[in-house]
């Protein structure tokens, strides 16, 4: 089993290139099979979840041609199965997008119930409500969602909760339904807009993505497109907090600063200097961080996917902070791991009270999920001693070349898979 070993204490300094947004890319790859023409997708992150999705779509007959690490050509004309059997697909959350894409194009789909990080109960009732409202019969049979429709008809739909997944999924199906669909109380995340832009580039007619109401005029067919995925705001934010926690000076390159507004605002609250450029953001932390209050919310609020990263910063900040996690009920597991490193935290329901400590001590901890794993790496980099992180497979789901990027900023982090390698690292760092 691979682990990260970290010797912290160095400020992270330098520039780091941010890749394409994993959560936009997963939906865009699913949407790419909705045309019989060839689609070229660029700025794809090379991470495990993306590779699982590519294998799943090639498994049902789509042609997938990787031009380079970040560029792929997809042709969905030879799809011969609407049943996603591929075993790994149920392990990722975004497998549910294949349901929306296949149902829209072929009026039939069978996909295993989705997995993803264990951060809460994660129901999909709003996806199913949307498909049914468009005229599909949807059942859950033997762990699979089975959907089919004689005809998909535009509808007026009000989501009961703001859901990124349901908004994108139903938008994909409605893009190929007959007539007009109006979706209210939708998610406004940048990746919702990116998927709408991608579908429009293939000839869909979707208006209002990024606002509370999306209007879709269904089209019969979609056509070829060349599309570049937006930068990953969560990867960018993770490196920005790594700078904050190590008293560093890091510039994240290839970002859309507007997408980082909530993250930037919190970094400023806790005492960092933040400079915005056209497509870069610089974070400088010169002194001890200050406490603050945070509540996770749908975009444009503070993202739940950035909650563990700020949690680490607040555990080192002067004073008492609170975090309220209002999206997923099980996203505080990393705090137990952080407590092993000396953090002082009390969790009650969906709220955590954090008394900042001056420093952590190195420990052996486990990544409970993707973002929490990345946050624990930040904690290790902010700690003088040695930290070992188990279960880094979660981190590999969503961060490309994570350790190499941190190394390029001066971080002493290595991937190891044996006691011998651990001892070698310890000898090297003294
Ligand atoms: C692959 C992907 O893009 N994952 C992201 C996506 O997850 P995901 O699409 O699963 O998250 P949602 O936005 O759907 O979930 C938001 C809230 O709505 C609830 N809900 C959702 C759907 C539904 O049918 N019923 C329901 O009650 C969820 O339990 C949660 O409390 O958005 C989350 C919120 O920004 C991010 O943390 C995840 O990284
Ligand atoms: C929680 C995440 O992913 P998933 O929804 O795929 O579990 C994430 O990207 O932070």
TrEMBL record:
Protein EC? 2.5.1.7
Q: Which reaction does it catalyse?
A: phosphoenolpyruvate + UDP-N-acetyl-alpha-D-glucosamine = UDP-N-acetyl-3-O-(1-carboxyvinyl)-alpha-D-glucosamine + phosphate
Going by the record, the broad EC class of this enzyme is transferase
The residue stretches assigned to a coiled coil in this entry are none
One GO MF term attached to the UniProt entry: UDP-N-acetylglucosamine 1-carboxyvinyltransferase activity
Where does the record place the modification 2-(S-cysteinyl)pyruvic acid O-phosphothioketal? Answer: 117
Chief location:
cytoplasm
- What does the record give as the active site? 117 (proton donor)
Q: What family does this chain come from, according to its entry?
A: Belongs to the EPSP synthase family. MurA subfamily.
Name of the protein in its database record: UDP-N-acetylglucosamine 1-carboxyvinyltransferase
Task: Provide the gene name from the record.
Answer: murA
């Amino acid at each position: 089993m691979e682990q990260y070993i970290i010797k912290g204490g160095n400020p992270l300094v330098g520039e780091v290139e941010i890749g394409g947004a994993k959560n936009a890319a997963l939906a865009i790859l699913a949407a790419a099979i909705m045309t019989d023409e060839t689609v070229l997708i660029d700025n794809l992150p090379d991470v495990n979840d993306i590779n699982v999705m590519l294998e799943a779509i090639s498994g049902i007959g789509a042609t997938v041609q990787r031009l380079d690490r970040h560029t792929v050509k997809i042709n969905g004309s030879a799809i011969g199965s609407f049943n996603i059997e591929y075993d790994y697909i149920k392990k990722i959350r975004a497998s549910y997008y294949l349901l929306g894409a296949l149902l829209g194009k072929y009026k039939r789909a069978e996909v295993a119930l989705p997995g993803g990080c264990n951060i809460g109960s994660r129901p999909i009732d709003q996806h199913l409500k949307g498909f049914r409202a468009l005229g599909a019969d949807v059942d859950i049979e033997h762990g699979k969602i089975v959907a089919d429709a004689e005809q998909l008809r535009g509808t007026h739909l009000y989501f009961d909760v703001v859901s990124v997944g349901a908004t994108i999924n139903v938008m994909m199906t409605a893009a190929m339904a007959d007539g007009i669909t109006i979706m209210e109380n939708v998610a406004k995340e940048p990746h919702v807009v990116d998927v709408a832009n991608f579908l429009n580039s293939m000839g869909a007619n979707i208006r209002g993505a990024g606002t509370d109401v999306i209007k879709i005029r269904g089209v019969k067919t979609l056509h070829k497109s060349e599309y570049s995925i937006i930068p990953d705001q969560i990867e960018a934010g993770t490196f920005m907090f790594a700078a904050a926690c190590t008293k560093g000076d890091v510039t994240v390159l290839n970002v859309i600063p507007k997408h980082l507004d909530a993250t930037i605002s919190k970094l400023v609250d806790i005492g960092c200097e933040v400079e915005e450029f056209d497509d870069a953001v610089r974070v400088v932390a010169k002194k001890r961080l200050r406490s603050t209050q945070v509540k996770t919310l749908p975009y444009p609020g503070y993202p739940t996917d950035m909650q563990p990263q700020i949690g680490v910063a607040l555990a080192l900040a002067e004073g008492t902070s609170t975090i309220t996690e209002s999206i997923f009920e099980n996203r505080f597991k990393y705090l137990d791991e952080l407590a092993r490193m000396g953090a002082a935290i009390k969790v009650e329901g969906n709220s955590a009270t954090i008394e900042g400590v001056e420093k952590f001590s190195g420990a052996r901890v486990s990544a409970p999920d993707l973002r929490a794993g990345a946050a624990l790496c930040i904690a290790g980099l902010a700690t003088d001693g040695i930290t070992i992180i188990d279960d880094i497979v979660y981190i590999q789901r969503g961060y490309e070349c994570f350790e190499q990027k941190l190394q390029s900023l001066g971080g002493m982090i290595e991937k190891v898979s044996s006691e011998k390698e651990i001892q070698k690292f310890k000898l090297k760092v003294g």
